[in-house]
Amino acid sequence: MAESGGWHTIESDAGVFTYLIESLGVQGVQFEELIALEADYLKQLSPVYGVIFLFKYQMGKNRSEAPMDGRHDMDAPNHMFFANQTIQNACATQAILSVLLNADKEQVDIGDSLREFKEFTNGFPSDLRGETLSNSDLIRDVHNSFSRSSPFVDEGTRQATEEDDLYHFIAYTPVNGVLYEIDGLQPAPIAHGSCTQDEFCDKVIPVIHRRIDRYPPSEIRFNLMAVVQDLRVKAVEIGDEEMLAREEQKRNDWETENELRRHNFVGFIHELLKGVIKEKIKGGTYDEWIKQTKDLNLQKAIAARKGEPVD
């Protein structure tokens, strides 16, 4: 896999993902973070088009090995969108598109831009599809517009090593009556047995549980995001005004958070800290302030070692 090629990392965040796909022209779809890994909980969000799973990636694994669960479907339908990941930092958007570009067109409106992209790459081998995705100015620019502003060196400018904590996004979605795991680092989609759209919630949860169980019990750094119908549309359909108000407020909060991501506050914080220090020195309380801060940090460190709550 090549280096970043101008792709930046983005957060696994429902607001980021929702506004990202809307910027690409997708209509009537949003993301919801799952706080419980239960089929009944997932069903409450129906219709569910797929899920995006974030996990710590184990470096050095041979991508041609047989999967530990399921099987590589080398004969997956030609019209199915599967692209190899050919560049770093693109896996979040690639996983998202793996759900959307395989969704039933009667259920999901992916918009003109993604529809043209899907039609253009139809019939391409998976590696060429990945190269085409990586070189799409539109998709890359929209993806990068949701990365955090940083004054420091972009991690994407260097090749990852086995010492890094790396995280990877993959997708699970039903296609043509089969539950597929779509991972751009694999040679083909991974089939997990028969699965209709109505069965998806019941069948995907055990698969994810089995994957998590392969990690040590101490590993808790996982994130699962459901790709669902815009919940504002659902609220209107069932006439739930309270739900509609909550979803509208959620959208407002997401918009604010996304706007903040685009700003670099290091300069502001630096000037603020300079002002605080200036006032402490002027008032003759600087040394006492530093001592109190050190004592407080020491107390927190001791409490943390003992497993005690830290205020």
Automatic annotation (TrEMBL):
Instruction: Look up keyword rRNA-binding and say if it applies.
Output: no
Q: Where is the active site?
A: 91, 168
Identify the SUPFAM superfamilies for this entry.
Cysteine proteinases
Looking at the UniProt record, the site noted as Transition state stabilizer sits at: 85
Q: Which GO terms describe its biological process?
A: cytoplasm protein quality control by the ubiquitin-proteasome system; protein deneddylation; protein deubiquitination
CDD domains for this protein: Peptidase_C12_UCH37_BAP1
Q: Which residues are marked as site: Important for enzyme activity?
A: 183
Record's keyword terms, sorted:
Hydrolase, Protease, Thiol protease, Ubl conjugation pathway
- Whether Amino-acid biosynthesis counts among this entry's keywords is no
Q: Which reaction does it catalyse?
A: Thiol-dependent hydrolysis of ester, thioester, amide, peptide and isopeptide bonds formed by the C-terminal Gly of ubiquitin (a 76-residue protein attached to proteins as an intracellular targeting signal)
- According to its UniProt record, the EC number is 3.4.19.12
Q: Which EC class is the enzyme in?
A: hydrolase
Fetch the InterPro entries from UniProt: Papain-like_cys_pep_sf, Peptidase_C12_UCH, Peptidase_C12_UCH_sf, Ubiquitinyl_hydrolase_UCH37, UCH_C
Identify one Gene Ontology CC term for this UniProt entry.
Answer: cytoplasm
Q: Which PROSITE patterns match?
A: UCH_DOMAIN
Q: For the UCH catalytic domain, which residue ranges apply?
A: 6-229
Recall the GO molecular function terms of this protein's record.
cysteine-type deubiquitinase activity; deNEDDylase activity
UniProt record similarity statement: Belongs to the peptidase C12 family.
Q: What is this protein called?
A: Ubiquitin carboxyl-terminal hydrolase
- Look up and give the organism this protein is from: Arthrobotrys oligospora (strain ATCC 24927 / CBS 115.81 / DSM 1491)
Q: What is the lineage of its organism?
A: Eukaryota, Fungi, Dikarya, Ascomycota, Pezizomycotina
